[in-house]
Write a structure and sequence with these properties.
The complex is a heterodimer of chains A (174) and B (560).
Chain A lengths: L13 E10 L4 H11 L6 E6 L5 E10 L1 H13 L3 E7 L4 E12 L3 H13 L3 E5 L3 E8 L1 H11 L4 E13 L5
Antiparallel strand pairs in A: 1-3, 1-4, 2-3, 5-7, 5-8, 6-7
Chain B lengths: L2 H11 L4 E4 L6 H7 L5 E4 L3 H15 L3 E5 L3 H15 L4 E7 L15 H5 L5 E3 L7 H13 L5 E7 H5 L23 H13 L3 E5 L1 H5 L3 H11 L3 E3 L14 E4 L6 H9 L2 E5 L5 H4 L10 E6 L13 E4 L2 H14 L10 H16 L9 H11 L5 E4 L3 H9 L8 E2 L10 H11 L5 E6 H7 L3 H6 L5 E6 L4 H10 L15 H7 L3 E5 L2 H12 L5 E6 L24
Parallel strand pairs in B: 1-2, 1-3, 3-4, 4-6, 5-6, 7-8, 7-10, 8-9, 10-11, 11-12, 13-14, 13-15, 15-16, 16-18, 17-18
Helix pairs in contact in B: 1-2, 1-6, 3-4, 3-17, 8-13, 10-13, 11-14, 15-16, 15-22
Chain lengths: 174, 560
C-alpha cells in the first residue's frame, strides 16, 4: 500500500479487493464493521471465514472508492488490534469468487429450458426445482453474477442471495 | 487468588500508585480487594471526573492513569472522559464492573454493553472471562495504552470473574500480534525530509501534541534552532515549545495567534511534528498548505494523508525521528539563517503588526489582563489546565507556556468540565507543583462537585474562574452568526461560586478589579486548600482573532 506522500491525486472511484487476516475471536467482525460505519467507508461486500490457521480468520472486503479513501481504509484497519494483516489485492494477480443463489419463476416449460441452457453456459447448477420455480447456484466474479442476473431477470427473480467475494492471491504470492 | 485481587496485584506490578473511582454493585469485589492494596484510591463524586482525573494524571506522568467504575451507569458515565482521552491520545486504563457472565445479554439490572459502547473511543476494550485471564489482560492493556500513539483501554470484568478463586500467573512478557507500534523512522524518508528542510527558504515548524506525548521538547528546540525556523503549534501542541523563545509564534487555528495564522500561509515548507491537521488548527483542508512542501512526522501511519496529503512522510516516534533529523542536519553543517534573514524579519514584522492592531476590550478587568496577571504571578513550572470555551481560547491566546509540558486541555473532544478534575489528577501526579484550572462558569458547573475531592484528598488546586454569567463561546457565536439572538446561554451568575467553594470547605474569593485579582491569586497560591477565584468578566468580551468554521486561515477576523 502506498503512503500518503506518494499517493496519486487521482480521485477516480474504482473497485478494490482488500484482504485481511484477523484474530478468530468474538467481536472482531463488530470492530471492523463499526470502524467502516464510524468513518463512512462504503463497503460493497464483506466475507469472513476460517483459514488454514485455527486462530485466524480471513476477511475479504470489496469497496468502490477512490485511492485516498482506500489508503485510509487500509491504515485504519491496520490500526485495529485484532487485525493482524491487511493487503490490497490486485485483481489481475488474484483469484476472487462469489457465490449466488437465485430463485426465479419458471412456470412455462420454455422458460425452464431457457434457464437450464443459460445455467449451463454460465456453468451454474440447478439446485432446486418445483412446478413453478427454479433455483440456480452460480459461482464467479461479481461481474459474471451480474451478467447472469441480468440475463434471467426477465423470467422474474423471486429471491436472490449473494455471499460476497472471497479472494486469494495467485501462485506463490501470499 | 480472587480475580479482584489479581487485578489489584497486576495494577501494582504496572507501577500504579493511584486510582480514581466510585464503587457500585458490580465492582464490590474490586473495592474489597482495594482495602488491602498499596494503592491510593481517590473517591470521586461522578465517574466522568474519575476519567478526567486519570487523564490529567496521565498527561503529567506520561503513563496511563487508572479509573474504576461499576457497570451500567457507572461505566457510561466514564465514557465522556474516555472519549476525551481518546481524542487527545492520552493513555488510560478504565476498569469497569460488569454483571455476572450468566446475566450478560439478559438486560440485567445495571447491565450495559460497555464493550460495544466503548469501541469507537478506545484503542481496545477487553472483557476477561476467567480470573486467570486478568493478569495478562492488564499487562496487554497497559502495553496497548501507553505505546505507539497512546490512548484509553477499557477492561470490563464480570462480577463473578472478580469473585472467582483461581490459580493465576503474572506474565513478564506479552505479545499482541496484530499490534506493532512503529518506533524507528525510515532513514531514507528522514533524509528526504532533511534535504527539503535545508532547501526551504521560508520553513515553518508546526508542533502538535505528539511532541508533548513523546517528550520531544529538547529535540524540537534543537531542530528549530538549527533551521532558525519559526515555530507555531497546534492548540494541543501548546507548551511543546517555550512561548517566550525567539522563534516562537504561538498556536495557529480558529482562535490562534494572528501572527501564527498569517506566517504559516506565507511559508514554503511546513514541518508538521506530531500534528494531525485538525479542522480547528488548519481551517479548510483544501486551502491549507497549498503550493508548499508538507513534511509530516507522526507515530500513527493512519494520520499520514488523512486530512492533508504529505509530500514527505516520516512515520515513527517523533522524539527519535527529530533526534535523527538533528544529527543529519548537524552533519550537513547547515548554514544558519542570519537574524536579518527576510523570513525572520517577516516573523518580527507580523508580531509587531498584530500587537498594535488587535484592540483590547475597554474594561478595567478583562480576560486578557487577568491571564497576563496569572502568568506574571505563577512560577514557570506551575501546571495549567483549562476548561472549554472562551476561557480555553483566551488561555491559548494570552497565557504563555514557558516550561514545556506544563499545559494541557481537552483540545480534540472539547469536553466542558474537563479542566477541574484533570487539574486534580495532575496535582496527584505532581503534588509539589502549583496547579491551576483556567475555567469559565459554564464548564466549571459541569464537574464542580470535584471540589469535594480537592478538599478531602488534599489535592488543592486553584480554579481561575473567568465568570461572564454566560455560556460565553456559544453567546459569541450567536452574536456573530445569529444576529445577537441569544438562545439558551444565560447562566445568570448562579450558583454563587465563592459560596459553593466554601460549602465544600474550599476557599472562595471574588475578584472584581485587577487589584482584587492580584490579591486573590497571591492568597490562593499561599494556602494549602483548594481555591475558587470568581473573576468578573464582561459578557460582551469576545475572543479574537477568529477563523470562522468552514473558512481558511487567510480569512481570519481580528476584531468585531
Amino acid at each position: 500500500m502506498k503512503t500518503g506522500d506518494t499517493l496519486s491525486q487521482n480521485d477516480a472511484v474504482s473497485w478494490h479487493l482488500v484482504a485481511a487476516l484477523v484474530e478468530n475471536k468474538p467481536g472482531v467482525l463488530f470492530r471492523v464493521t463499526n470502524l467502516f460505519r464510524a468513518r463512512s467507508f462504503n463497503i460493497e461486500s464483506i466475507t469472513v471465514g476460517s483459514t488454514e490457521q485455527v486462530d485466524l480468520s480471513r476477511m475479504t472486503i470489496t469497496t468502490k472508492t477512490d485511492e485516498k479513501t482506500l489508503d485510509q481504509l487500509v491504515k485504519q484497519l491496520r490500526k485495529l488490534i485484532d487485525v493482524v494483516e491487511v493487503r490490497v489485492l490486485e485483481t489481475s494477480k488474484s483469484v476472487y469468487r462469489e457465490l449466488a443463489l437465485i430463485k426465479m419463476k419458471a412456470e412455462k416449460p420454455t422458460a425452464r429450458m431457457e434457464i437450464t441452457t443459460y445455467a449451463s453456459i454460465f456453468r451454474a447448477n440447478i439446485l432446486d426445482i418445483d412446478k413453478d420455480t427454479i433455483m440456480v447456484e452460480i459461482t464467479g466474479t461479481p461481474d459474471k453474477i451480474d451478467a447472469f442476473k441480468n440475463l434471467v431477470n426477465s423470467f422474474g427473480i423471486i429471491q436472490l442471495a449473494r455471499t460476497g467475494v472471497s479472494a486469494l492471491p495467485r501462485g506463490e504470492n501470499v | 487468588m480472587l480475580g479482584a485481587e489479581a487485578l489489584i496485584k497486576a495494577l501494582e506490578k504496572e507501577g500504579v500508585d493511584v486510582v480514581f473511582g466510585l464503587p457500585g454493585g458490580a465492582n464490590l469485589p474490586i473495592y474489597d480487594a482495594l482495602v488491602d492494596a498499596n494503592l491510593r484510591h481517590i473517591l470521586v463524586r461522578h465517574e466522568q471526573s474519575a476519567a478526567h482525573m486519570a487523564d490529567g494524571y496521565a498527561r503529567i506522568k506520561r503513563k496511563a492513569g487508572v479509573c474504576f467504575a461499576t457497570s451500567g451507569p457507572g461505566a457510561t458515565n466514564l465514557i465522556t472522559g474516555i472519549a476525551t482521552a481518546y481524542a487527545d491520545s492520552s493513555p488510560m486504563i478504565a476498569v469497569t464492573g460488569q454483571v455476572p457472565l450468566a446475566m450478560i445479554g439478559k438486560d440485567a439490572f445495571q447491565e450495559t454493553d460497555i464493550i460495544g459502547v466503548a469501541n469507537p473511543c478506545t484503542k481496545y476494550a477487553f472483557q476477561p472471562r476467567a480470573a486467570a485471564e486478568i493478569p495478562e489482560t492488564v499487562k496487554k492493556a497497559f502495553y496497548i495504552s501507553e505505546s505507539g500513539r497512546p490512548g484509553p483501554v477499557l477492561i470490563d470484568i464480570p462480577k463473578d470473574v472478580q469473585q472467582a478463586r483461581e490459580e493465576v500467573a503474572f506474565p513478564n512478557l506479552i505479545k499482541v500480534r496484530g499490534y506493532n507500534p512503529i518506533v524507528d523512522a525510515d532513514l531514507s524518508q528522514l533524509e528526504r525530509a532533511v534535504q527539503a528542510m535545508m532547501k526551504a527558504e521560508k520553513p515553518i515548524i508546526m508542533a502538535g501534541g505528539g511532541v508533548i506525548l513523546s517528550g520531544a521538547f529538547s529535540e524540537l528546540q534543537a531542530l528549530a534552532e538549527l533551521l532558525m525556523a519559526p515555530v507555531v503549534t497546534t492548540f494541543k501542541g501548546k507548551g511543546s515549545f517555550p512561548e517566550n523563545h525567539a522563534l516562537a509564534m504561538g498556536p495557529i487555528g480558529m482562535h490562534g495567534h494572528a501572527e501564527a495564522n498569517k506566517i504559516i500561509i506565507e511559508a514554503d515548507c511546513i514541518i508538521a511534528v506530531g500534528a494531525r491537521f485538525s479542522d480547528r488548527s488548519v481551517g479548510r483542508f483544501d486551502e491549507f498548505g497549498k503550493g508548499m512542501t508538507i513534511i509530516h512526522l507522526d507515530v500513527d501511519p493512519a494520520e499520514i494523508g488523512k486530512n492533508k496529503a504529505a509530500d514527505i512522510a516520516v512515520v515513527g516516534d517523533v522524539k527519535s525521528s527529530l533526534r535523527t533529523a538533528v544529527k543529519m542536519l548537524t552533519k550537513y553543517k547547515i548554514v544558519k539563517r542570519a537574524i536579518d534573514d527576510p523570513w525572520l524579519k517577516r516573523r518580527k514584522e507580523l508580531i509587531d503588526y498584530y500587537a498594535d492592531s488587535i484592540k483590547d476590550y475597554p474594561r478595567e478587568l478583562t480576560a486578557k489582563k487577568a491571564l497576563k496577571k496569572l502568568r506574571e504571578l505563577l512560577p514557570h513550572n506551575a501546571i495549567v489546565t483549562t476548561e472549554v470555551g472562551q476561557c480555553q481560547m483566551w488561555a491559548s491566546l494570552h497565557f504563555d507556556v514557558i516550561a514545556p509540558g506544563t499545559f494541557f486541555s481537552s483540545t480534540g473532544l472539547g469536553t466542558m468540565g474537563f479542566g477541574f478534575p484533570a487539574s486534580i489528577g495532575a496535582k496527584a501526579a505532581k503534588p509539589r507543583s502549583i496547579v491551576v484550572d483556567i475555567a469559565g462558569d459554564g464548564s466549571f458547573n459541569m464537574t464542580e462537585n470535584s471540589l469535594a475531592v480537592s478538599v478531602l484528598d488534599k489535592l488543592p488546586v486553584i480554579v481561575f474562574l473567568m465568570n461572564n454569567y454566560m455560556l460565553g463561546m456559544v453567546a459569541q457565536w450567536q452574536r456573530t452568526f445569529y444576529k445577537r439572538r441569544y438562545s439558551g446561554v444565560h447562566q445568570q451568575n448562579c450558583p454563587d461560586y465563592a459560596k459553593i467553594a466554601e460549602a465544600y470547605g474550599a476557599q472562595g474569593i471574588r475578584a472584581q478589579t485587577m487589584e482584587e485579582l492580584d490579591k486573590a491569586l497571591k492568597k490562593a497560591m499561599n494556602t494549602d486548600v483548594a481555591s475558587v477565584i470568581d473573576i468578573s468578566i464582561d459578557p460582551e468580551e469576545d475572543v479574537y482573532p477568529f477563523v470562522a468554521p468552514g473558512t481558511g486561515l487567510k480569512d481570519m477576523i481580528t476584531g468585531a
